[in-house]
Design goal:
Elements: E1 2-3, E2 7-11, E3 20-24, E4 30-33, H1 35-47, H2 54-63, E5 66-67, H3 73-85, E6 90-95, H4 121-135, E7 140-145, H5 154-170, E8 174-181, H6 188-196, E9 201-206, H7 210-216, H8 226-236, E10 242-248, H9 256-269, E11 279-285, E12 303-306
Parallel strand pairs: 6-7, 7-8, 8-9, 9-10, 10-11
Antiparallel strand pairs: 1-5, 2-3, 3-4, 11-12
Helix pairs in contact: 4-5
Amino acid sequence: MKVSRYNFAHVEEASHNSQVVIYNSRTGAMAALEPDKYADFKKFEENGICIGDTEFVEQLMYCGFLIDDDFDEINHIKASLHASRYNNSVMSLTIAPTMACNFACAYCFENGIDRNEEMSEDTMKRLVNFIEARASHLDELHITWFGGEPLLAVPQLETISRHVIEICKANNVKYTSIVVTNGYLLTQENANKLMDCAVSNVQVTIDGGKELHNSRRPLVDGSGTFERIIQNVSLAKHIIPITIRINVDNENHTCLGEVMNVFNVISIESNNLRRSKNMKILVKPADDAITPMGCVIKLPTICILFW
């Protein structure tokens, strides 16, 4: 038995009584440990001192924090990657129903591109035909709705989804989909429409606190977007699961606490959002030069904080 190389730990508060959140980036498991349990875990990690609590060890093994001595995590990841790459029974598509966007983000890859183009009816038909031709050989189909801003093209999204859902039902294919959106148009009405389209999760990007976010992700007319997004999320999360993605770099990493505080306020005003199973926060480093942020958090490649 040995410790996984993909474990990351975060002390929730600067206190000797605080819980420690541990996260494994290979399995995606997250656990909150009492100080004595974490101390036992660290003694094993650093000095090889056996953990006496058998049930605790079983839980650590189940989540991937501890692994068998002969288990090679890197080879396992490579094998999984290759298996998925050549697995013809699962198809994943990224679909942009429009390249239009209501934001003018300074770093956007679409700068200089015609942003008013929408998917034509002919393209939608060809896309549906493409999926239908392969459906009989599929076990699973996953679609990521992207853009542009996909919520500017809800009718196209609905039309394609309706056909895809019918095709998957007829061929006994498991269908899942997510939407990547800036959140400005994530109204309750649109959230309900997405649920009807079998969308299982909506990812919304926040670039920091209000001031910094608005400077980076304004509307095309320069207006701020932060407050509208937060308002939309606080209402839509009762309808559809939402992931808040924060891309962290050297400029905005100090704003992470400010963003968390915003969601703490929402939790008080909106039926305990902080503990909602429909809500999670994903922190993604956007700059390799980032150093651990004091006592706040040491960021792994991807860290999911359930909020």
